[in-house]
Amino acid sequence: MIARVWRATATPEGAEAYRAHFTGSVLPTLRRLDGHRGAYLFRLDRDDLVDLEVMTLWESDEAIRAFAGTDMTTAVVEPEARAVLLTYDETVSHRTVVVDTVNDLV
């Protein structure tokens, strides 16, 4: 399994708007894709800003390319997300999952 990780920063209001976008638009799209295995949205509140991190899980590079296109490192950031975020990564990183206690992969 492969974890695809992306980061952004928002105001508290923007972070809540992104959460709504993520659950209402992004997740339904991801769930329809073959090879998608799950997603997480993490939030870290600090002073008057919020750090967001998205981790999506995929069964293969081919599944990621079906979502992201031929350049797997390019972030997919929809206009609705861009509108509520202060900053966001233009690229993503990928990590091989070597232990997964949810799915008993070791």
From TrEMBL:
The keyword Zinc does not apply. Residues 1-77 form the ABM domain. Pfam families: ABM (PF03992). GO terms for molecular function: monooxygenase activity. Keywords: Monooxygenase, Oxidoreductase. It comes from the Bacteria. This is Antibiotic biosynthesis monooxygenase. It comes from Actinomadura nitritigenes. The lineage of its organism: Bacteria, Bacillati, Actinomycetota, Actinomycetes, Streptosporangiales.
